[in-house]
């Protein structure tokens, strides 16, 4: 980064500080990860200098000799990895990808069905404060209060009553396996397009650690930077039947020029995700989350749905008498980075909710094994108790222990200092 340091030392110093922060902290936000050096290198290339509105072979700008090949590689790798007929690798991120789905299949005012945000769904699945819930008519399903799980019979009843044109399954705080065949049956019955938003679990699907939506969903929407370990970006995959509608919605419907440096990095990440090491990684992410869940439950933490099938744990801290935000901020001071989160049927507000959401993708990328989850759970327990007691000394001690574990398992993609 010698050029950056010379031209803009303030930004260069902040980048170095962020590298250090990512090296020293236990990053448990389930939607975050560490990318490889190769992915990082691809994002910082001259591909970003090029405009290429259109698709390979059908562009509105000349000079696409290399860009067409980059995008074609990304498309072919995406199709192969996720076993779908068609892939569009241009969406800038998850929300624009989902918005393209609306443009492809709905008219303003049409009905869309998705999981409610406080139940674990995403803003773009028709939730009220999002454009998707104001320009379209969002109807929402949730999870059962007693089990923390979706009751598909209730989803079916809602779909039959509301007749949505599009049904989203998947979300941002869903610790359990998504029943793609079950959702597909409901979508077929009401004539809806089924969209599987697999942003959180794309890497698990690629690595065989979660069932695939292929053969069930009409459209698969995913970001590329979560469990998939790619750059910040997104993809829409679909059956052949919907390929044209998806492509037209992304460009020219919603976006301009694709971010070619991101497309290249997506291609690299997809190549990495097709390898045997990634398969082991995906399974280890789940093993680590389950081990962490068991250790936390043993310490009296209430896990929504009782545990996890994937990379994510949603913890209701009501029983510990510590608000999620207070816990999250204390954990941050201890070098454990999480996000505060609503839990289903939360009585508190989203900006000051009852829970925290944690996950194991990033720590697993560092090679941290399941045996270390005992310490991780112990630290979380100590810090949550310390947050309640105002015990900063314990928080400082935990921070030192966290740093020692991080030093023992260096993160991929970061400079070695
Ligand atoms: N913000 C992402 C997450 O953290 O899950 C979803 O959009």
Automatic annotation (TrEMBL):
PROSITE patterns in UniProt: SHMT
Catalyses which reaction(s): (6R)-5,10-methylene-5,6,7,8-tetrahydrofolate + glycine + H2O = (6S)-5,6,7,8-tetrahydrofolate + L-serine
Pathways per UniProt: One-carbon metabolism; tetrahydrofolate interconversion; Amino-acid biosynthesis; glycine biosynthesis; glycine from L-serine: step 1/1
Binding site for (6S)-5,6,7,8-tetrahydrofolate: 117, 121-123, 241
SUPFAM superfamilies documented for this protein: PLP-dependent transferases
GO biological processes: glycine biosynthetic process from serine; methylation; tetrahydrofolate interconversion
A GO cellular component annotation in the UniProt record: cytosol
Isomerase listed as a keyword: no
Major location category of this protein: cytoplasm
Site (Plays an important role in substrate specificity): 225
InterPro entries documented for this protein: PyrdxlP-dep_Trfase, PyrdxlP-dep_Trfase_major, PyrdxlP-dep_Trfase_small, Ser_HO-MeTrfase, Ser_HO-MeTrfase-like, Ser_HO-MeTrfase_PLP_BS, SHMT-like_dom
PANTHER family: SERINE HYDROXYMETHYLTRANSFERASE
Binding partners and assembly: Homodimer.
Family: Belongs to the SHMT family.
Function: Catalyzes the reversible interconversion of serine and glycine with tetrahydrofolate (THF) serving as the one-carbon carrier. This reaction serves as the major source of one-carbon groups required for the biosynthesis of purines, thymidylate, methionine, and other important biomolecules. Also exhibits THF-independent aldolase activity toward beta-hydroxyamino acids, producing glycine and aldehydes, via a retro-aldol mechanism. Thus, is able to catalyze the cleavage of L-allo-threonine.
Protein's name in the database: Serine hydroxymethyltransferase
Gene encoding the protein: glyA
């Amino acid at each position: 980064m010698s050029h950056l340091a010379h031209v803009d030392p303030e930004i260069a110093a902040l980048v170095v500080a962020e590298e250090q922060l990512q090296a020293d902290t236990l990053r448990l936000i389930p939607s975050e990860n560490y990318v490889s050096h190769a992915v990082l290198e691809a994002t910082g290339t001259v591909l970003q200098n090029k405009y290429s509105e259109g698709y390979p072979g059908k562009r509105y700008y000349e000079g696409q000799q290399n860009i067409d090949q980059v995008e074609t590689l990304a498309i072919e790798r995406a199709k192969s990895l996720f076993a779908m007929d068609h892939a569009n690798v241009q969406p800038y991120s998850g929300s624009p990808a989902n918005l393209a789905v609306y443009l492809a299949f709905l008219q303003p005012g049409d009905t869309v069905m998705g999981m409610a945000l406080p139940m674990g769904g995403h803003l773009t699945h028709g939730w009220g404060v999002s454009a998707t819930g104001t320009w379209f008519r969002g109807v929402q399903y949730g999870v059962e209060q007693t089990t923390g799980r979706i009751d598909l019979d209730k989803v079916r009843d809602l779909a039959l009553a509301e007749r949505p044109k599009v049904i989203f399954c998947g979300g941002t705080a869903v610790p359990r396996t998504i029943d793609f065949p079950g959702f597909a049956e409901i979508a077929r019955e009401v004539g809806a397009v089924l969209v599987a938003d697999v942003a959180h679990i794309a890497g698990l699907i690629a690595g065989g650690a979660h069932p695939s939506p292929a053969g069930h969903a009409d459209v698969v929407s995913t970001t590329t930077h979560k469990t998939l370990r790619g750059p910040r970006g997104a993809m829409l995959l679909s059956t052949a039947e919907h390929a044209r509608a998806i492509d037209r919605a992304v460009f020219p419907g919603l976006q301009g020029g694709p971010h070619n440096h991101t497309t290249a990095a997506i291609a690299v990440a997809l190549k990495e995700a097709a390898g045997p090491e990634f398969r082991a990684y995906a399974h280890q992410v789940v093993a680590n989350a389950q081990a962490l869940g068991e250790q936390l439950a043993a310490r009296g933490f209430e896990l929504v749905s009782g545990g996890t099938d994937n990379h994510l744990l949603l913890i209701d801290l009501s029983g510990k008498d510590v608000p999620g935000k207070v816990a999250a901020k204390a954990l941050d001071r201890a070098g454990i980075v999480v996000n505060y989160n609503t839990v289903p049927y939360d009585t508190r507000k989203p900006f000051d909710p009852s829970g925290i959401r944690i996950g194991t993708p990033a720590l697993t990328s560092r090679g941290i094994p399941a045996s270390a989850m005992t310490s991780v759970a112990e630290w979380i327990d100590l810090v949550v108790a310390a947050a309640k007691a105002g015990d900063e000394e314990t928080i400082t001690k935990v921070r030192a222990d966290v740093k020692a574990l991080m030093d023992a398992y260096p993160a991929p993609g970061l400079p070695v200092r």
